[in-house]
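User: Quick sanity check before I run a bigger batch. Here is a single chain. Can you write out its predicted 3D structure?
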Amino acid sequence: MARSKSSARWLKEHVNDPFVKQAQKDGYRSRASYKLKELSDKDKLIRPGMLVIDLGSAPGGWSQVASELVGDNGKLIASDILPMDPLPAVDFIQGDFTEEAVFEQIMATIDGRPVDVVISDMAPNLSGISSADQAASIYLIELALDMANQVLKPKGSFVAKAFQGEGYDAFVAQVRQQFDSVVIRKPDSSRARSREVYVVGRGFKG
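Assistant: Done. Predicted structure follows.
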């Protein structure tokens, strides 16, 4: 069956994408790795020795970067409903982090240590119905923010992918209430036509 024009255009764009080529060269699982690299560089998010939680981590591009940044003395806990191939020095917990059993697994892995940063590059499975997709994306980042509220230490940081549209402004306002500093970033590796941005909160008020 012939590909649609849109899927053929996406495939051509993907194959020629410099960040896709760079990810293959650098051994990263996803071009999204460079988004977290840039965000962390700009906002000094992740440093050696930190404890970081990566929500919606599969296939592992952000976990790879975060694990490198925290180093041998840090800890990276990743979680996703999808399976993720193992990564060195990454504790992966498969399941829905909003379910009590999975949440308890995460808390047991944290083991009372203060969480420095919660990161989330989650996105919903798209239905093609823009209003439904936007609602689903806002729901996911609200869940990520709720998780951050439960585990972050005072002055901790939060970064999550958001899609501009209905509910976005209200979400950003909510983050501003809970963090001392909030900025909106559009990394160079984020495709220009995408509505995605990254909401970065620093200085969790607790």
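Helices lie at 5-16, 18-26, 33-43, 61-70, 100-110, 130-151, 168-178.

User: Great, the batch can go ahead then.
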